[in-house]
Amino acid sequence: MRIVILYLLLLFAFSHAYFGRENEGLAVFGWATLLQSPRTVSFEGAGSAYPSQDFGAALMNPALLEGDGFGAGLSWQSGDLANDQGIAVLSHPLSIGGITGRMQHTYGVVDNGDVLHLDENGEETGVTSNPIAQYYAMTIAFPLKHFKFGITGRYLWERLTETQDVQVGMGLAMDWGLLWNSGSARYGFALMGRHLGRQIRPYINGGVNGFALASELAASAFWRSNQNLTWLFECSAPRYSPALGKLGLEYHFAEPMLIRVGMQRELIDAARFARSVFDSNEEAPQAGYYRLFSAGAGFKFWSLVLDYSYSMLIEGMGNEHRIALSGSF
User: Fold this and answer.
1) What does residue 302 show for φ and ψ, rounded to 5 degrees?
2) Are 283 and 51 in contact, with CB atoms under 8 Å apart?
3) Which of 133, 153, 194, 282 has the greatest number of C-beta atoms within 10 Å?
4) What is the C-alpha to C-alpha distance for residues 272 and 73, in angstroms, rounded to an integer?
5) CB atoms within 10 A of CB 257
């Protein structure tokens, strides 16, 4: 019980970071929110109340962490805006103070390759940097009477360049999640706080420190309309951006195969689009998120699962591909 109380205190303490407005508009380490599994991206993040053994589910909502025995997964993403990024995961059972739960370890990395330095006139200086960003996260989830509770602690590390007076920037973040134990497989509801925390070391020696991370609060639900089709919904409120609405679908196409599709838009854009249908003077928004839509599929064989997702970007910016292999043993 003392462990539960400690986690709840941490939950509210870190959630306070969301409501503070110091250094508004200067969020850091936003790249960490883009390191997701193909299944999660296929739904555009709408599946954060939908229980699954997919390791990406716990990255969206720590309370979704579940499974038996040991589990492992590896995901890689590439494309016009997601080049050389990936996550590796290991999960296992856990017992704390007589409470049985589960723990997941996650390592994420973003390698941006070689970047040429330019001077104030846009000319190459001959100096090249290799920016790289990494994080390690530890997730714990365990059941309560009416809810399942999960919490993630994350250490972030980012190097922008190797030039003089530049150092590695560091940050600490926490995610929390509550999943309602409805007792039904047809519907569910969840609450989450993501990426709550702050920068603990500046990128420049003697630089400004303490910037907040790209935090958000979210509510999510799912509804299984029939045996094969599941509808997924989420509404999230980012710290520095307009609220987002997310919609996803999963269809059980065949015994070992699932197909998925999802999209997300700013709620203000969705409202403007609805008004434009009835008012010819109202202009419909062209896009409200950098991904126009995502789609994917999952295939299970033995104890392994192969997932793939494709994302089309807006304004002809290209596309992204993600692929993952996971399993239990």
Assistant:
1) 55, -125
2) no
3) 194
4) 40
5) 12
Alpha helices by DSSP H, 120-173: none
Q: What is the mean pLDDT of the chain?
A: 84
The residue assigned the tokens 């062209």 is 286
244-250 long-range Cβ contacts below 8 angstroms, 24+ apart: 244/289, 245/270, 246/43, 246/44, 246/45, 246/46, 247/44, 247/46, 248/42, 248/43, 248/44, 248/45, 248/46, 248/47, 250/43, 250/47, 250/50
Q: Are 57 and 250 in contact (CB under 8 A)?
A: no
Which residue matches tokens 């400690």?
A: 6
- State the pLDDT at residue 281: 63
Total-model pTM:
0.85
pLDDT, position 19: 47
pLDDT score for 261: 96
Question: What confidence tier does 92 reach under pLDDT thresholds 50, 70, 90?
Answer: very high
The CA distance from 18 to 9, in Å, is 15
